[in-house]
Amino acid sequence: MTAPFGARLAEAVAARGSLCVGIDPHPNLLDAWGLPRDAAGLERFALTCVEALAGEVSMLKPQSAFFEAYGSKGVAVLERVIAESQAAGALVLLDVKRGDIGSTMAAYAQAYLAEGSPLAADAVTLSPYLGFGSLAPALDEAERTGRGVFVLALTSNPEGASVQRAVADGRSVAQAVVDAAADRNSGAAPLGGVGLVVGATIGETGVDLSRLNGPILAPGVGAQGAGAADLARLFGPDPRHVLPTSSRDVLRHGPDPAALRSAALRVRDALAAAAR
């Protein structure tokens, strides 16, 4: 990579807007597109998304599990999605939510963040709930190669609150994650490479994000119910470093690439207009 992730992300958002579109080949979506639930259907679905979207949006977010479900053939499709999306100018955030310790975390870092790996994306999602410090091998590899990470902070699933909003040493676990990410981003310009995942449907954050100096991935826009007003309430009237994420609300317009592209651009432009 020729520049740090934060700088590349800021450039991409300035040129293409802040919308991130998920590539989630859910079996029900394959059915809706008239595709078989096999590796061939997966490939047709995923590469149609790339064809329609990679030249238009700033970031695509393939969900790794839906590819892994088809074994080695599915992982081969994922490799193509990453490479072809990047070739068309989109950043790729690989949604893997890995979280482990020691040599295992280092191996995940090599798989998804090391230069030359066929699965190396521009950024990955990570889970910090074995302790933020356990993520150090991935954070260090990302910094070394100019890639980014998005660390789970406040997720929209109801089960998450019992851990994320628990209080220890006078602050919530989520706030501790935010603070640790902010420390890693300190001094970076225009933006650090350690982002957070904060669900757009959570209602309120209850954390102080003012020191983060990094991007925020906000899934839940569209089919899950969140809109521009929710983003403004959560992140303020100028959410310039927030990446609203939509998947089903765009993907339901397939399999026609032109319809997919039009749907993504409508969502992107509506969010941009609301933020002005």
UniProtKB/TrEMBL annotation:
The active site is at K97. Residues 18-263 form the Orotidine 5'-phosphate decarboxylase domain. InterPro entries: Aldolase_TIM, OMPdecase_AS, OMPdecase_type-2, OMPdeCOase_dom, RibuloseP-bd_barrel. One of its GO terms (molecular function) is orotidine-5'-phosphate decarboxylase activity. Keywords: Decarboxylase, Lyase, Pyrimidine biosynthesis. CDD domains: OMP_decarboxylase_like. PROSITE patterns: OMPDECASE. GO terms for biological process: 'de novo' pyrimidine nucleobase biosynthetic process; 'de novo' UMP biosynthetic process. Pathway: Pyrimidine metabolism; UMP biosynthesis via de novo pathway; UMP from orotate: step 2/2. Gene3D superfamilies: Aldolase class I. The keyword Cell membrane does not apply. Its EC number is 4.1.1.23. It catalyses: orotidine 5'-phosphate + H(+) = UMP + CO2. It is an enzyme of class 4 (lyase). It comes from the Bacteria. Belongs to the OMP decarboxylase family. Type 2 subfamily. This is Orotidine 5'-phosphate decarboxylase. It comes from Actinokineospora iranica. The lineage of its organism: Bacteria, Bacillati, Actinomycetota, Actinomycetes, Pseudonocardiales. The gene is pyrF.
